[in-house]
TrEMBL record:
Residues 251-262 have a biased composition (Basic and acidic residues). Keywords: Glycosyltransferase, Transferase. SUPFAM superfamilies: PRTase-like. It comes from Geodermatophilus amargosae. This is Predicted amidophosphoribosyltransferases. Residues 225-235 have a biased composition (Low complexity). InterPro entries: ComF/GntX_DNA_util-trans, PRTase-like. GO terms for molecular function: glycosyltransferase activity. Residues 225-262 are annotated as: Disordered.
């Protein structure tokens, strides 16, 4: 979460370099209202060939258009202020699960960064997004928290350029659960920035699900954005009179979408 020091640093940068929207490049906030709207339509993430064990996954928007450069600016170009709008988008996606399975505390489980990513970026981007999402969920009245339940169990090579099958093989056995007792009855929601093939989320869910005793409580997943399938739109399983992903109308009003970054 952003503190006074981060706000001061951002103000000093603004004096030297005018801020522009990371999505479209127009002068103004870190993510303008028009680009923000691209992350305000939660949908079921459906990879073209879902891997076995992929948990039910909700994405706040499609990983396309202005969302792609915004995520890249946050992760690869040091624009940490984008944790605000992107984290709020993640909260919206998690909020769908909270509405559909009410009455349980919600525990966000960030996908842990690899050592190489931590060295290159100097920060754990998904943990930053999870912290913002938890704050937004609590402000909306959701009993939410986050926990670093997962750890990397081995080395994984860069997945860029790999086929779907190669991605799955590359990630097999990647995650392990940290020692300790998992909270009984809580909704475990694995969170990440983007889902493409679903291999990372399925491996993370398998690690968590293998340690649970209350199997009636599923492991779920939520992401900021999902890579769209060619010729397909994100599927919303809600019928007439229902909101995003089957949520009753009005239940997500307080999580109406990512805010403009300060």
């Amino acid at each position: 979460m952003r503190g006074p020091g981060a706000a001061l640093a951002g103000s000093l940068v603004d004096l030297v370099l005018p801020r522009t929207c990371a999505g479209c490049g127009v002068p103004g906030p870190a993510l303008c209202r028009r680009c923000t709207a691209a992350l305000a339509s939660p949908r079921e993430a459906t990879p073209r060939r879902p891997p076995p064990g992929l948990p039910p996954t909700v994405a706040a928007g499609a990983y396309a258009g202005p969302v792609r450069p915004a995520v890249a600016a946050f992760k690869e170009h040091g624009r940490a202020e984008l944790a605000g709008p992107l984290g709020a988008a993640l909260a919206l996606a998690v909020g769908v699960h909270a509405v559909l399975l009410p009455g349980r505390p919600v525990l966000l489980v960030p996908v842990p960064a690899s050592r190489a990513a931590l060295r290159a970026r100097g920060r754990d981007c998904v943990r930053e997004l999870a912290a913002v999402a938890v704050a937004d969920l609590r402000a909306a009245g959701v009993d939410a928290g986050s926990a670093r339940l997962l750890t990397r169990a081995g080395r994984v090579r860069d997945s860029a350029g790999l086929s779907v099958a190669q991605r799955r093989a590359n990630l097999a056995g990647t995650f392990a659960v940290r020692p300790g007792t998992l909270p009984a009855g809580a909704l475990l929601v694995v969170v990440d920035d983007v889902v493409t093939s679903g291999a990372t989320l399925s491996e993370a869910a398998a690690a968590l699900g293998g340690t649970r005793r209350d199997h009636d409580t599923p492991v779920l997943a939520a992401v900021v954005a999902a890579t769209p399938r060619p010729g397909a739109r994100g599927r919303s399983p809600g019928g007439p009179g229902q909101g995003p992903c089957g949520a009753p109308p009005g239940r997500l009003d307080r999580l109406s979408g990512p805010r403009d970054s300060d």
